[in-house]
Amino acid sequence: MSRTSRPSRTATEIATQPASWRRAAEAAAAFDGLPRPGERVAVTGCGTSWFMAIAYAALREAAGQGETDAFAASEFPLGRSYDRVVAITRSGTTTEVLALLDALKGRGAATLALTADPTTPVMTAADAVAVLDWADEESVVQTRFATTALAFLRAGLGDGGAGPGVKSVADAAVDAELALTEPLPEAVLAAEQWTFLGRGWTYGLALEAALKMREAAGAWTEAYPAMEYRHGPISVTGPGRVAWAFGELPEGLAVDVAQVGGTLVANAPCDPLADLVRAQRLAVAIAEAKGYDPDRPRNLTRSVILG
Q1: Which residues pair with 115 in a beta bridge?
Q2: Closest by Cα among 133, 153, 162 to 145
Q3: CA dihedral defined by 32, 34, 39, 45, rounded to 10 degrees?
Q4: What is the per-residue pLDDT across 219-265, written as a single tens digit (0 to 9) for each?
Q5: Where are the beta strands (DSSP E) in 66-145?
Q6: pLDDT score, position 2
């Protein structure tokens, strides 16, 4: 079988996400160390993991479980006081995350790390570690681990996922199975530019969708809070360009996109995490259409380890 006739490693890993999320929900139910209701929590990571942190922080606050902030590990405000700090690191070797966990020792906050590799330094850097090794990836570009980490944290918020209007992880997995099989719209595949939008926790997903398109396909993508779209970003939208909204569409936005000739993608009935699966598939499709190998993105490595 030729290289062009078989799925990329990245596409194969994308397709395993529904099963991985279900396993994450089971693991969360048995794990002691997740943030507890009422705790003041900070969530951190780098790159994709930071965007998952943003999504979880908004989910947790919306669920009424306590103040929750999200920071890139390199920008964490050590002067602030938290009950618990959650670090997401697929590799367990990311320099900024390990340095932060070391700096937090003795400051009073319990630390929890989510990782895919139980043989790495993060195992002793945090007070507690959730090993999601079934979600590890061979790919440089993160897909399965990132969404599984978010599914794990989301399931830990309790029944229903994360409060009113948010589906359970089990229901999200069902939606993801559909997202894996439905054809991508031709107008989205043929576009020259994509702007991803979200509100609340789905803003983190919008940031991640744009990153996937840049990483895998070298594409021109942007991401914004959905209500900010009309405050400037709409200026890039027009024929051959896409505005993709995760979750509920703000009132009037569909009309605004139509008036400037853009293509709107809005899958509100679909769980937004499952809709991110569609965006991951789009990134692979655009990469392959350009002749790029999504398994070997330009200028990237699996983990950033600074000398």
Answers
A1: 131
A2: 133
A3: 150
A4: 999 999 999 999 999 999 999 999 999 999 999 999 999 999 999 99
A5: 68-72, 84-88, 110-115, 128-131
A6: 37
